[in-house]
Amino acid sequence: MKTAVLGLGLMGAEIALRLKRQGRDVLCWNRSAERSEAARERGLAARATATEAIAESEITLLVLSDAEAIRATLFESGDADALDGRILIQMGTIAPRESREIAGRVAAQGGQYLEAPVLGSLPEAREGRLILMAGGDPELFEHCLPVFRDLSRDPQRIGEIGQGAAMKLAMNQLIAGLTSTFALSLGLVRREEIDVEQFMGLLRDSALYAKTFDKKLDKYLSHEYGAANFPLKHLLKDVRLFKQVAEESFLDTALIGAIEDSCRQAEALGFGDQDYSALYEALCPDPYGPSS
Ligand code: NAP
């Protein structure tokens, strides 16, 4: 099954390389030429336009930043037949309503649409260990399973279009929530000059522990958040999406609103492109200033 990957950012490039390593015939496209060139240097075939990549492939994976990027890529080529008979798989983190709207537009142009957002980052993409949460037609899901199995050990269909997107947002709300609450507890431990390893030891033995705490611990302790797999600006995007969906679903948004404020503060401090755990810097600012 010839597969196109549109969007060669952090995730798109890793997904394309994984599929190629799995023996698939992969074609890529990226809006900016630099990333296409970098992909060619890594052995991937790249096309100059999204329309060319879609036309040459049976399945097209969209690994783009947000719904705006998807609309620009799919619907602004000027070629009304570009999606006719094609299969489009949306893998980014977008709102359920956005996914349904894009699905409707794809269908109106004669294409088939499935959403398949993923939990996990670059190492998981590299090793085919992403958690894939699909939404859409069951037969189309079955048809695409061989590609999904190259990326995920247990790709699951959650339900209809929008339900996969909602599941993904539910997961990412946990990333934001766990990161914020752990950062605050660690901040208090450090302010009180308690031994961090003693705190972690007790936490690891308790029902409150989550693996992400240890995974990011070095970053909190060193205040070094570089080399982001999942940058803070994307977490902010997802927190905003969750808040919007929560509002529409009549859930209380006070907590997610507070987390959004903290993400925004961390971005204003210059951490937007760094690892999302830099949220710590907004929640636990140094009382003596950044230089101390
Ligand atoms: P990224 O590194 O920022 O890459 C974004 C991609 O979208 C780039 O290829 C970019 O092209 C393209 N793009 C942005 N605006 C565009 C537009 N208007 N038209 C066409 N292309 C556009 O993002 P990423 O980390 O790969 O994430 C991609 C999606 O997956 C996001 O929805 C993210 O939330 C989700 N996700 C990310 C991770 C992760 O760990 N990074 C994990 C799970 C899910 P240019 O190069 O031209 O800017």
From TrEMBL:
User: What is an example of a GO molecular function annotated in this UniProt entry?
Assistant: oxidoreductase activity
What single Pfam family name could you report for this chain, choosing any that match? NAD_binding_2
Kindly identify the residues recorded as the active site. Answer: 168
List each copy of the 6-phosphogluconate dehydrogenase NADP-binding domain by range.
3-153
Query: What UniProt keywords apply to this chain's record, in alphabetical order?
Result: NAD, Oxidoreductase
Q: Where is the 3-hydroxyisobutyrate dehydrogenase-like NAD-binding domain?
A: 162-282
| InterPro entries registered for this protein in UniProt | 6-PGluconate_DH-like_C_sf (IPR008927), 6PGD_dom2 (IPR013328), 6PGDH_NADP-bd (IPR006115), HIBADH-like_NADP-bd (IPR029154), HIBADH-related (IPR015815), HIBADH-related_NP60_sf (IPR051265), NAD(P)-bd_dom_sf (IPR036291), Ribosomal_bS16_CS (IPR020592)
May I have one GO cellular component term? ribosome
* Name recorded for this polypeptide: NAD(P)-dependent oxidoreductase
